[in-house]
Each structure stands twice: as C-alpha cells, then as structure tokens.
Design a protein that fits this description.
Blueprint lengths: L1 H10 L14 H11 L3 E4 L6 H7 L7 E5 L14 H10 L5 E5 L4 E5 L6 H4 L1 E3 L1 H5 L10 E3 L1 H4 L3 E6 L6 H6 L1 H5 L3 E3 L2 E3 L5 E7 L12 H6 L2 E4 L6 H11 L8 H16 L12 H20 L15 H5 L13 H21 L5 H6 L6 E4 L4 H6 L9 H8 L5 H17 L5 E4 L2 E4 L1
Parallel strand pairs: 1-10, 1-11, 4-7, 7-10
Antiparallel strand pairs: 2-3, 5-6, 8-9, 12-14, 13-14
C-alpha cells in the first residue's frame, strides 16, 4: 500500500476518488498513516464520509495477488504462515495449485454490534474437527474469524465503540504482536493485516467507548469533518444522490445551504451532527416530486423546480436531532431554515437584477399560480408581460436555465425571493402556491 500510494502521488493520480472537501485536512493525515504503516481510526460525526474513505484504501492494494488455493488465510505461496500450508508446499512443490485474488476480495468490513463474539472476530475451536480425531491443541482444529481471514488485506470495523469491551480486548494482540489467542492456545501467525476503524467522538457516544489500551494500539487517530466549502457540499450531493429526474444546480445549492443552516442552527443538537445524507435525501425527494409531476401531467419534463422544495421538510425531519427545549417546534424550525437557504441562493444569483418590474406587474388583482401539479409551460404561459421584456431572460441566464422547465424554475425562484423580501405575498395550500 505504501509503494502504490507513493507511486500514485508521484504520477499525479488521485488515490482518493470521490472524497470532496478533505484534501487539505484529512487526506494528508491519512497518507502519512499509510506511509508509516499505522493502523488507524477515523473519528467524526455521522455522515462525514468515514466509511467511504476507508473503502478507498482498497485502491492502494495490488490489483491482483497470488494465493495458495484452498488456504483459509489466503497465504502467499512464497510466504506461508500456517503449518498446514508449509506442509503442502513441501509435499507438492511447484505443483501447488495457485489462485489469484482481486484487491476487492482483500477488504473485509464489519459493522460493530454488541452481539459480536470473539469467535466472529478472532476464531474458535471447531468441534467438528475435534470430533474427526484431531487433538484439541492442533492448529487444524481452529476455525478462524474475521481478522485472521483478512490476512494480506484490510479489515474495517465500523462504529468501533459499539463493540463490547471484551471483544476490543481480543484485538489487542492482533494489533500489537500480530498473533492470535484462541481458547488458551497461542498461534504465532505473522498476520499482515491493516486494521482500520471508524467511530463517533467518544466524548458524546452513549452506546459505548473505545477502551484505552486499544486506542493506544492505533498508530493514527484522524478527525474527519463536514465539507467546509459550499461547492464541496454540492459535489457530495451530486455524486451520491440517485436522482430520478433532473435537478438544476441552483436547487442543489439551496439544499446544500439548507444542510449547512440546519447544521449550524442552535436549535439542533451539536453533538449528533447533520449528516451529508440529509442533503442527499433532500435532492432525491425533490427529483421524485418532479418525476411524479411528469407522470401525472403528460408532456411535462421531469425537471425539479423550487416549488418542489416544500416536499423535503417532512421527509428530512427524522434525520435531525433537536435539543430537548425545541420539542414541538421541529417542523417550524426546518421550514424557517429552508426559507433562509432559499433567500441566500436568490441573493447569490439574482443580486444586481432589478426585479421591480416583476413586482409592479402584480397590480393587486393579478396573481400567478404554481404548484407540484402545475406544469412548467402553464407557469410560463401565465407570466405577466414586463417592461423591459427581457427581464425573464436575464433571470434565466443568471441561474443557467435554458429549457422550459428550467426557465419556469428560475421565475419561481425570483418570485420566492420577492416573497421572502416581503415584496410579494404568497398563499399555499392544497398543492398550489399563489403569488400576488
């Protein structure tokens, strides 16, 4: 892994594809840990990409590697670690069958749960093999667990504090002496395994803790964080969201701003964090609303518009932990923060555009109706005439809108901005939104 990492960096290749916003903070620490050959633990709040970062370590392994066919521990034919494999090599020589393993097969991931046993992680005596006549102290009676089977690879333990303390103790010898102890038998196996783990910072995890001796065994403790730059937050959403309809960039930006506003809100628990999955689920919900509209209104493009943003509040409520004093106000808080995020996006994109003619067009009697079942063309057809007539074009240009669906969305964004600036009124209900 060290050799492959250094070669990638020397060649200018990115060894950490898909990791946004960590290049100057977390990634350098991770690279130093790999070069030093350290086991490592990632500490961070939920949804900071810890698991994804651990999985990218697989790319540093050789793509293919030989292994003795039938070996439980995937031993290298030139470096066997068990007595059984050494005996096979002595007996079969060059006729020993070899298999080739892809690097994806050399990564083992375990979600730590309280019911995990020592047998699962390290191994246990196999009573069936004892019943076959082998003596109890024979290494052949051992059924190996997850960690020994990860020999010549990576074993990742997600949510390490959830692992019972006695199981954490069982890992001490593996991580320091690289041997395993099973039922009083010590097997001196020179395991070549990288142990990596993820955890929430232990000062606020109420499910468990990482025992001090195990923390001492990890060579590197790396703190992760949420994306610092807005563009990195948007890039994460665009990369991870499975969108069933087109979601314009400005809507992804609003959802990213929304996520950051919720994350920074004093009403939200500071210890639990707001996962990147918050914005991802929001983008998928907005796309689903656009797809639904296209299904019930034939001829409509499946393109999300600002009117679809209202669908995310109810869906995302369960992803946020509020302080106890805010009980009963959760929905109100989330709606307010969504309005704040929308207003920020309007200021960012439409600053300098004089929207007074659009306000003047609503003379007290004229209104414009939109909603989750109103098509983009219906919105465009009911737009009031303006002076200058190119104002709609300038609004569309500012948000990068070209198709009818995108242009309708751009106008909706401008109307929503005017409402939030108290220059227009808005009445919502029964799936319709009326500006006037």
């Amino acid at each position: 892994m060290r050799r492959n990492l250094l070669a990638a960096l020397a060649a200018g290749r990115d060894p950490w594809p898909g990791m946004h916003g960590l290049s100057t903070t977390v990634i350098p620490q991770l690279e130093r840990a790999v070069i030093a050959g350290h086991d490592l633990v990632l500490l961070g709040e939920r949804g900071q990409g810890k698991t994804r970062l651990l999985r990218t370590l697989v790319g540093l392994l050789d793509e293919w590697t030989p292994a003795i066919e039938g070996s439980e521990l995937s031993e290298h034919p030139f470096a066997p670690v068990t007595a059984a494999s050494r005996a096979r090599i002595a007996a079969e020589g060059d006729a020993l069958p070899i298999t080739w393993k892809h690097r994806s097969e050399r990564y083992v991931e375990k979600l730590s749960t309280p019911d995990t046993s020592v047998a699962d992680m390290i191994g246990d005596v196999d009573p069936m093999r004892v019943a076959e006549g082998r003596r109890l102290g024979d290494p052949e009676t051992i059924h190996y667990g997850l960690v020994p089977r990860a020999h010549r690879g990576i074993v990742a333990l997600n949510e390490l504090p959830d692992l019972a303390e006695r199981i954490q103790v069982a890992l001490l010898n593996v991580m320091e002496e690289r041997d395993i102890q099973i039922r009083g038998y010590v097997l001196r196996l020179p395991l070549d395994v990288l142990v990596v783990a993820s955890a929430n910072p232990e000062d606020y995890t109420n499910r468990g803790r990482i025992i001090t001796p195990l923390k001492d065994r990890f060579g590197a403790e790396i703190r992760t964080h949420y994306p610092i730059e807005l563009e990195d937050e948007i890039a994460v959403v665009r990369q991870e969201a499975q969108l069933v309809a087109e979601v314009p960039h400005v809507l992804l930006e609003i959802l990213a701003r929304y996520t950051r506003a919720v994350r920074e809100s004093p009403a939200v628990s500071r210890t639990s964090g707001v996962s990147a999955r918050f914005a991802i689920a929001g983008a998928e919900t907005v796309a689903a609303a656009a797809r639904l509209r296209a299904a019930v209104r034939p001829g409509e493009e499946a393109i999300a518009r600002p009117v679809d943003l209202g669908t995310v509040v109810d869906v995302l409520r369960g992803k946020v932990e509020f302080d106890s004093g805010e009980e009963g106000r959760e929905h109100e808080i989330l709606e307010h923060l969504l309005r704040v995020a929308t207003a920020e996006a309007v200021r960012e994109h439409l600053a300098g555009v004089d929207l007074a003619p659009l306000v003047d067009a609503f003379d007290g009697e004229r209104t414009l109706t939109t909603g989750d079942r109103v098509t983009a063309q219906e919105v465009l057809d009911t737009l009031p005439a303006l002076d200058p007539p190119d104002l709609y074009d300038r609004i569309a240009q500012r948000v990068g809108a070209s198709t009818p669906g995108e242009r309708a969305g751009a106008v909706e964004l401008a109307l929503e901005g005017l409402y939030l600036a108290r220059r227009l009124s808005k009445d919502s209900g029964d799936g319709a939104t009326i500006y006037g």
